[in-house]
Amino acid sequence: MPAGNKPSAPSRADELAEIVLPDHECHDVRLGDLWSERPAALIWLRHYG
Amino acid sequence: MDRARGEFKAAGVGLMLIGQATPRQAAQFRRRQGIQLPVLADEGRVSYRAAGAKVANMSELFGPQSVSKGLVAGARSRRIQTRTVGDAAQLGGSLVVRPDGNVAWSHMSANAGDNASPEEILAAAVREVVA
User: Fold this and answer.
1) pTM to 2 decimals?
2) Residue-range domains of chain B with CATH
3) What ipTM, to 2 d.p.?
4) From the CB of residue B117, how many other CB atoms can be counted at a distance below 10 Å?
5) B111 touches A at CB < 8 Å
6) Residue A20 and residue A29: Cα distance in Å, rounded?
7) N or C, where is chain B less crowded by C-beta within 10 Å?
8) CA distance readout (Å), B64 to A12, A33, B10, B50
9) Which of residues 34-73 of B touch A (CB under 8 A)?
């Protein structure tokens, strides 16, 4: 999202669900698996530091 | 957030942190901050874009609201800001997602000081479990 725009969360997490990211131990995690069986809270950190 | 992990677990709600760096940097961040939650590494910020996270402009980074909230947050956490890893203008946010893929609740940051509290996120998530 360009700077200065209002943030807008999606109403559905379909795009997020297909994203695969490594965890801190380099194990791949598919985001959709996090909420496949129970609600999940995802927190995007601003930065490390 | 890490301190609330037991409450999320007790409520039957998954909890995951996502940061904008490499797995190695995520591991260093966990160690340095004493965090036990897993941290996903999104160096390319793909998930940030998909979640609608904003890249801040100068006033959203250094405006009075951002600075004052940053000072309060720093005092509460008793943690010192260390070297920034990642794009300092990238803002974060929070989503609660239902098993059907619908986003039940969201708070994406409008400026650098605009963050949902762990209590707010937990309350939103617990509502989904109860519903």
Assistant:
1) 0.83
2) 2-130 (3.40.30)
3) 0.87
4) 14
5) no
6) 5
7) C
8) 33, 39, 37, 29
9) 38-42, 46-57, 60
